[in-house]
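User: Sequence recovery, please. Input:
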């Protein structure tokens, strides 16, 4: 089980996301008010707190949301989860659809540090069941296609 450290959104694409007190997740859409929400496979982006902390230890000066991540999660090695894994918390149910991403135009973090962790450590998910997520909420890892009762 993991814990949500931060929830971040942005109204426009191409800018850093900003931490918010909560996010409303809409099925097959993503986070209400977030620029990346919509009917596609990358509705919600997640990054592990451990990956961010390790990157900061190498000298990166980054704040929550700087990588474009919606959810920062402590206690789960997100990049090791197979596609299809489900994540449940706050009444929501997410399904992992992609691990990492190709970075076509290097971001400011890459230009400053010579690398960025989102392409290798970030994951993406679609919203199967909506609800509200807040910092401090727990996040459970469920097997792919788990049709069992999901903890809220």
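Assistant: Recovered sequence (152 residues):
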């Amino acid at each position: 089980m993991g814990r949500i450290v931060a929830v971040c959104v942005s109204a426009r694409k191409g800018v850093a996301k900003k931490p918010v007190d909560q996010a409303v997740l809409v099925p097959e859409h993503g986070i209400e008010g977030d620029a990346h929400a919509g009917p596609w496979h990358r509705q919600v982006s997640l990054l592990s707190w451990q990956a961010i902390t390790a990157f900061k230890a190498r000298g990166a000066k980054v704040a929550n949301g700087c990588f474009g991540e919606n959810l920062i999660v402590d206690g789960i090695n997100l990049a090791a989860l197979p596609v299809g894994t489900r994540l449940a918390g706050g009444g929501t149910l997410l399904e992992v659809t992609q691990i990492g991403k190709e970075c076509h135009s290097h971001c400011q973090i890459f230009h400053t540090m010579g690398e960025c962790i989102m392409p290798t450590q970030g994951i993406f998910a679609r919203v199967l069941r909506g609800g509200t997520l807040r910092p401090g909420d727990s996040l459970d890892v469920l097997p792919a296609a788990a049709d069992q009762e999901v903890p809220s």
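Helices lie at 49-57, 108-113, 118-121.
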